[in-house]
Amino acid sequence: MGRWLLRRTAQAIATLVLTIVLLFFLSHVLPGDPLSRLGEGRPLTAAETETLRARYGLDRPLRSQLGSFLAGLARGDLGTSIEYGRPVSALIAERLPATLLLGGTVLLLNFTVGLWLGVRQAVRRGSAEDRWLTTLSLVGYATPSFWLGLVLAWLVGVEWRLLPAAGMRDPLVDGGILAGTADVLRHLVLPALTLSVVSIAGTMRYQRDAMLDTLRLPYIVTARAKGLSPARVTWRHAWRNALFPVLTLFGLWLPVLVTGSVFVESVFAWPGLGSLAAAAVGNRDYPLLMGASVLVAVIVVLANLLTDLAYATLDPRVRLT
Amino acid sequence: MTSLLQVQDLVKYYASSGLFRGGDPPVRAVDGVSFEVMRGETLALVGESGCGKSSVGRTVIRLQEPTSGRVVFEDNDVFALDRKSLRRLRRRMQIIFQDPYSSLNPRMTVGAAIAEGIEIHRLAVGAEIGRRVGALLEEVGLDPGYARRYPHEFSGGQRQRIGIARALAVEPSFIVCDEPVSALDVSVQAQVLNLLADLQRDRGLAYLFIAHDLAVVRQIARRVAVMYLGRIVESGPTEPLLSNPRHPYTVALRSAVPEPDPGRKHARIVLSGDLPSPSKPPPGCPFHTRCWHPARDERCRIEVPLLRPVEETFAACHYAELTPAAEALAEA
């Protein structure tokens, strides 16, 4: 186990370095540069451009820029955003809580509601409920989340005025922690719902299939033959084994949920990382773009590592060597 | 010997389902089967794949709901029991499966799998449970220390022993053995069969032994019932049924068993064609599409033969008295 962790960590670091180098070149291949929008309405003079290019190190060859980026990264320094003129790490740290709140909520809903519905469907396979849920999950999976977000924002937020359609806090609400928390939760409902529909629909399908495969196995029949209650057979015998295929799905979902959905964050003006990264791409804000990319890369690698560890913990047949 | 299990006119149809098959006739897996199992005896149920023998096994202990019929087990009308009484009765009737790999939960230790039944039926409490698990493992020829291990650490034969220990844990009087040795090497087969025989002697167990291999059946069963297309076509004591079969299907099955004596004449009857679809069984005798009986005629296509006593067995063939012996065929 110790040796496995050591080897996997070395692999993870190598993967990260390669990914970062690739991302660095890719982001600089994008046409345009960060200075094109800095003129505040008037074109920059040649001298101004020169000065600015030198200040941000854009006049140096790409290789040397990569070198200093990597050197900074090794010290934990992600550089300074060109657009905001502030450290990238500070910008990310500001946006991270909102993203974690939204992503965590969606993940939690997914893990509870999605798995539960999938198991229910499998146990009641062929019933009217199963067919309805199948239809619903297919519709949910096929619905584009930005469209669903717009519809929900318009219907629930604008037409019915039930819930706030944008932002994370109402500036007019102040006072105690309780009122503040309630305000954030109210803002959270629509974006979380929008993102959950797709992810829950996917999880349901996976869980239903995995569960059906398991329910067919003889050890489930012998469990029933022992005289166990249906709930015990379903959860203790079948579900525990039907969890593995879905676990892989979570390894894949985790990065998406942590970085947030660019579309959904834009629709609901959710102050998370997704909208920050999207803006960075538009502005060719290289340091910020790279900062966000590094974060995503780290999360992807970590999620994979976690999935493997979860497998090893839950499945006695898997040994990490 | 007293009767333990009586099965009367058991029928199990599977409705065909699916978008394009909703209107198809149902699959007649079991089509009116009756038999009886005595306390402490073994009845073998024999037939080729798809003949419905496994469906019989699962339906008599109500792991599947029957379409119709009646099963009486230890004076309980099995199909009339409510869920709660059924779960209580479960411990008296157990099942062992063919595939020793998928019949054990990979995430439960061997000890936990065996102990679960004991706990559910409150057959023991506290430290006594662990002692019973150890004793059961010993009884099936395994080290009691194996209780802490997981199924993937064992061989096929060992897993089958674990499956047997799990079934025994709840103190059944009857075990459905669904091809319990078909997936094992021949040498391991013999060991597991001997174990089953020993357990039967020590505990007075009755088995419904489902098999497709007559050589195995000869070793373990006192009586045999041969199934074809959801029906019993011949039944009787093992020895006369195997040495002097009266149904042409039994003769064909019998001829497929390898003969240890090379000097003995032996004809191999190879049935032509496939098993007819159980959703559209042929009219008349279900076997008439593949029958090789020299006396077969128009009557076989029209009239369903009933199971009737012929010499030492019961056979469902209009011309059972005229069925030639396999040896006679070899000489011809």
Describe this structure in words.
The model of chain A has no long low-confidence stretch (mean pLDDT 87). Chain A has helices at 2-29, 46-55, 62-74, 88-123, 128-142, 145-159, 177-215, 218-225, 230-242, 244-259, 262-267, 273-283, 286-314. Chain A is mostly helical. Chain A is globular, with a radius of gyration of 24 Å. Chain A has a domain at 100-270: MetI-like (MetI-like fold, Orthogonal Bundle), CATH 1.10.3720.10. Chain B has helices at residues 53-60, 83-89, 110-120, 127-139, 156-168, 186-203, 214-220, 238-243, 248-255, 298-302, 326-331, and strands at residues 3-14, 27-38, 42-46, 68-73, 76-77, 93-96, 174-178, 206-211, 223-228, 231-237, 308-310, 313-315. Chain B has an eight-stranded mixed beta sheet, with helices on both faces. In chain B, a hairpin with a 2-residue loop joins strand 4 and strand 5 (76-77). In chain B, helix 3 (110-120) crosses helix 4 (127-139). The longest helix of chain B has 18 residues, at 186-203. The radius of gyration of chain B is 21 Å and the shape is globular. Chain B starts with a strand and ends with a helix. In chain B, 43% of the residues are buried. The mean pLDDT of chain B is 90.
Helicity of chain A, in percent?
Answer: over 70%
CATH class of one domain in chain A: Mainly Alpha
- What kind of sheet is the major sheet of chain B? 8 strands, mixed
CATH architecture of one domain in chain A: Orthogonal Bundle
Oligomer: heterodimer
Order of helical and strand elements of chain B? EEEHEEHEHHHEHEHEEHHHEEH
Low-confidence stretches of chain A: none
Number of domains of chain B: 2
Rg on CA atoms of chain A, Å: 24 Å
Please state roughly what percent of the residues of chain A sit in beta strands, choosing from under 5%, 5-15%, 15-25%, 25-35%, 35-45% or over 45%.
Answer: under 5%
Mean pLDDT of chain B: 90
Distance between the termini of chain B: 43 Å
Would you give the CATH topology of one domain in chain A?
Answer: MetI-like fold
Class of secondary structure makeup of chain A:
mainly alpha
Tell me, what's the shape of chain A?
Answer: globular
Strand content of chain B: 15-25%
Q: At the third CATH level, what is the topology name of the largest domain in chain B?
A: Rossmann fold
Low-confidence stretches of chain B: none
